[in-house]
UniProtKB/TrEMBL annotation:
The keyword Chloroplast does not apply. Residues 1-17 form the signal peptide. Keywords: Calcium, Hydrolase, Metal-binding, Protease, Serine protease, Signal, Zymogen. Pfam families: Pro-kuma_activ. One of its GO terms (molecular function) is tripeptidyl-peptidase activity. This is Peptidase S8/S53 domain-containing protein. GO terms for cellular component: extracellular region. InterPro entries: Peptidase_S8/S53_dom_sf, S53_propep, Sedolisin_dom, Tripeptidyl-peptidase_I. One of its GO terms (biological process) is proteolysis. It is found in: Secreted, Extracellular space. PROSITE patterns: SEDOLISIN. Its cofactor is Ca(2+). Residues 203-573 form the Peptidase S53 domain.
C-alpha cells in the first residue's frame, strides 16, 4: 500500500515536471547583505559537475594501487583510464543536453572526461532554468559585490545526473586574520632526549631539519620525479629571496637553483616588487632547500584574465589541470598560507566532494598530494557562533590527501612535540570531518583513539568523520628570507612542505631504481606507524582554548602518527 502510494507520488512529480532543490542556504554568510535582484541581462558563467560514471570503482582502484601488499600496488592509471571512470554515462549526457537544448542553451566541456561542463546564460534564463533568485549581494567590509542565489533546483529527472552547479550558493570568504602569536615557553622536560645538534632547537634551518629527520643532503640523481608547490591568488615566488636563502642555508648546492612554472587561470610569476607572496615564497625555499636535486615546479593558479576566478574555482581548476597532463608532478604540496579560507564549513558538502573527487583521480594517477593540517587548532574562531564550533581544515579532510600538522622544538626543550605544547601560541589543526566519512585505512587507529579520549555519539564533534592530521612535522618557526632579510614564520604550510620534500626524495630513489613512485601515501603511512616519532602529549587549542584534542600514545588528532624518520620510511618501502 505504502509502496503503491509512493509510486503514485513519484509519478505525479515526474508528470508535473517537478524540481528538486540541489543546494540551499538560509542566509548569506556573515558580512554579505542582499542589495536587490541581479540585473536580468547580467551574464553568468556557471559550471555543472555531472555525475561521474563510476566514482566508487575509481576509489576502490585507488586503494588497490596505493596499498602495499596489494597485487596491484604501484600500478597507477593513465589519464585515459581515469577518464574512463569519471566520464558521465550516456544517459546522463543525453538527459542534461536535452534539458539545456529545450532551454536554448549550449554547454562546453571543462575537462577531457566531460564531467565538468560550462554554461553561459543570463540571470533571467538562470532564474527560470534553476527556479533560482539570483541577487546582488554586497560585503559590508570589502564592498565586493557578487551575484548569488540562496537556493537552486534542477528537474527531478536529473537528480542523479548533476552533482552541483557553481557558483550559486557559495560566497567568497574574506581573508582570515592571522591569530598566531608568540608567548613564553611552557614546559616539556628539559633533559634532551633527541640526538640533535644543540644549536638546532629554536633555530630551524634546512640543515637542522635534515638532521632532525635524517633527510639526505646529497642530490637526487638521476632526477626521476618533480615536486609541485601550489600557489593561488596571483601571489608569486621571489627569486632573489630564494637565492639569498640557498646562499645562506645551502652553501653546498648551486644558489642559482630555481624552479619552473605551471600557470593555470593566468597565474603569474612576474617578479614585480609588489606581490611576492608570504605564503608560497617560503614554501619554495624549503622545497628547493630540502628536496635536493629534485626539480621543483611552482603551480600558480591565478584569478583569470578578468579576475573572475575566485579561490573556490581555483581549487577546482588546479587539480583538474594537473589531471589533463600526461605526467603530473609525482609529489604535490598544496598548503597555501595566504588563502582566504581554510575551514571545511566554508564549503558546501557538494563543492568539497567535487574537489575531493579530483584529488582521488590524482591519487589514481600515482600523485602524492600533501596538504597542510590547518593553522587555527581544533575549532573555528570565525564561526558565526563565535569561537565554538569544532571545525577542520579543507582540503585536509578529503580522505585522498595526506594532511600534515605542525610540531615545534624550542631552544629550552628536550624533544620535539605538538606545536601548541610549549605555549608558542601557534597551534595546528586536527579533528573530525563533518562531510567525509572515516576512510578504511583509519579503522586501525581512530576507534582506539576515540575510546582513549572517551568520545561517544554524544560528543560535540563528528566521531564518524575522516580524522586529521595523518602526520606532523616542524611548523614553528623555520628561518626564511623575505625582502632578502632573514625572518621566521609559523605554519602547517612548512610542515607539509618539509614532508613533501622527503617524499619527493624517496619517490626519486624508487623511480630511479625502476620502481613505481609512492602515489597516495595514507595506506602506506597507516601500515607503518613506527616510521614516525610519536608525541603522546600536547593539544591543539586555537579558539580561546575552548576546544582542543589531546595527544595519546599512537595516532591522535593533534599530531597524527607524529613526525617522519627518513631512514625508517625508506626501510618500509
Ligand atoms: C527557444 O528559442 C525558440 C526559437 O527562437 C523560442 O521559440 C523558444 O521560446 C525558446 N525557448 C526558451 C525556453 O527560451
Ligand atoms: C565602501 O564604500 C563606502 C561607501 O562608498 C566607503 O565609504 C568605504 O570606504 C568603502 N570601503 C572599502 C573597503 O572600499
Ligand atoms: C649565479 O648567477 C649569477 C648571475 O647570472 C652568476 O654571476 C653566478 O656566478 C652564478 N652562481 C653560480 C654558483 O653559478
Ligand atoms: C557526520 O559525518 C558524516 C560523514 O561521516 C556526515 O554524513 C554527517 O552529516 C555528519 N554529521 C553532522 C551533524 O554534521
Ligand atoms: C582534553 O583534555 C582536557 C583537559 O583534561 C579536557 O577538558 C578536554 O575535554 C579534552 N578534550 C577532548 C576532546 O577529549
Amino acid at each position: 500500500m505504502l509502496k503503491a502510494l509512493l509510486h503514485v507520488l513519484l509519478l505525479v512529480t515526474v508528470v508535473c515536471g517537478g524540481f528538486v532543490v540541489l543546494e540551499r542556504r538560509d542566509n548569506p554568510p556573515n558580512g554579505f547583505l542582499r542589495v536587490g535582484p541581479s540585473p536580468p541581462a547580467t551574464i553568468l558563467n556557471l559550471r555543472l559537475a555531472l555525475t561521474q560514471n563510476d566514482m566508487a570503482g575509481l576509489q576502490e582502484t585507488v586503494y588497490d594501487v596505493s596499498t602495499p601488499g596489494n597485487a596491484r600496488y604501484g600500478q597507477y592509471l593513465s589519464k585515459e583510464q581515469v577518464e574512463g571512470f569519471v566520464a558521465p554515462s550516456q544517459d546522463t549526457l543525453n538527459g542534461v543536453n536535452s534539458w539545456l537544448k529545450t532551454n536554448n542553451l549550449t554547454s562546453s566541456p571543462l575537462t577531457a572526461a566531460g564531467d565538468w561542463i560550462a554554461v553561459s546564460l543570463t540571470v533571467s534564463q538562470a532564474n527560470t532554468l534553476l527556479a533560482a533568485d539570483f541577487s546582488t549581494f554586497q560585503n559590508a567590509g570589502t564592498n565586493q559585490t557578487v551575484h548569488r542565489t540562496l537556493s537552486y533546483s534542477i528537474p527531478t529527472t536529473l537528480r542523479t545526473s548533476i552533482n552541483i552547479i557553481y557558483p550559486t550558493v557559495t560566497f567568497p570568504v574574506a581573508k582570515h586574520p592571522s591569530i598566531r602569536k608568540k608567548t613564553s615557553a611552557a614546559s616539556r622536560p628539559n633533559k634532551r632526549t633527541s640526538a640533535i645538534s644543540s644549536d638546532c632547537p629554536g633555530n630551524w634551518t634546512p640543515a637542522c631539519i635534515q638532521e632532525l629527520y635524517g633527510i639526505p643532503s646529497t642530490p637526487a640523481t638521476p632526477t626521476a620525479n618533480t615536486l609541485g608547490v601550489c600557489g593561488f591568488d596571483n601571489e608569486f615566488v621571489d627569486i632573489h629571496d630564494l637565492t639569498a636563502f640557498l646562499k645562506t642555508y645551502r652553501p653546498d648546492i648551486d644558489s642559482n637553483t630555481t624552479f619552473s612554472l605551471i600557470s593555470i587561470d593566468d597565474g603569474i610569476n612576474n617578479q614585480l616588487p609588489s606581490g611576492a607572496s608570504s605564503g608560497s615564497s617560503p614554501m619554495i625555499q624549503y622545497a628547493v632547500g630540502l628536496a635536493t636535486g629534485v626539480p621543483v615546479v611552482f603551480i600558480s593558479t591565478g584569478t583569470g584574465q578578468t579576475g573572475s576566478v575566485d579561490t573556490f574555482t581555483a581549487f577546482l581548476d588546479e587539480p583538474n589541470y594537473l589531471l589533463s597532463l600526461a605526467q603530473p608532478p609525482q609529489t604535490v604540496v598544496q598548503a597555501f598560507d595566504g588563502v582566504s579560507f581554510e575551514f571545511e564549513s566554508d564549503f558546501t558538502p557538494q563543492l568539497a566532494e567535487s574537489i575531493c573527487n579530483s584529488y582521488a583521480q590524482l591519487a589514481a594517477r600515482g600523485v602524492s598530494y600533501i596538504v597542510k593540517g590547518g593553522d587555527f587548532g581544533a575549532a573555528n574562531p570565525f564561526s558565526p557562533g563565535g569561537c565554538l564550533a569544532w571545525d577542520v581544515s579543507f582540503p585536509a579532510s578529503c580522505p585522498f590527501v595526506t594532511a600534515v600538522s605542525a610540531t615545534e622544538f624550542l631552544a629550552n626543550e628536550a624533544s620535539e612535540g605538538a606545536m601548541s605544547n610549549a605555549g608558542s601560541g601557534g597551534t595546528a589543526g586536527g579533528g573530525f570531518s563533518n562531510i567525509f566519512a572515516r576512510p578504511r585505512y583509519q579503522d586501525t587507529v581512530v576507534p582506539a583513539y576515540l575510546k582513549a579520549i572517551g568520545a561517544t555519539d554524544a560528543s560535540p564533534f563528528n566521531i564518524s568523520g575522516r580524522a586529521i592530521p595523518d602526520i606532523s612535522a616542524i611548523g614553528h618557526s623555520p628561518f626564511i628570507f623575505q625582502g632578502e632579510t632573514v625572518t621566521s614564520q609559523d605554519g602547517t604550510n612548512f610542515a607539509a612542505t618539509i614532508f613533501a620534500s622527503m617524499i619527493a626524495l624517496l619517490t626519486n630513489e624508487r623511480i630511479a631504481a625502476g620502481k613505481p613512485g609512492l602515489g597516495f601515501l595514507n595506506p602506506l603511512i597507516y601500515q607503518n606507524p613506527t616510521a614516525f616519532n610519536d608525541f603522546p602529549t600536547g593539544s591543539n587549542p586555537g579558539c580561546n582554548d575552548a576546544n582542543a584534542f589531546n595527544g595519546t600514545v599512537g595516532w591522535d588528532a593533534v599530531t597524527g602518527f607524529g613526525s617522519p624518520n627518513y631512514a625508517k620510511l625508506r626501510d618500509k618501502l
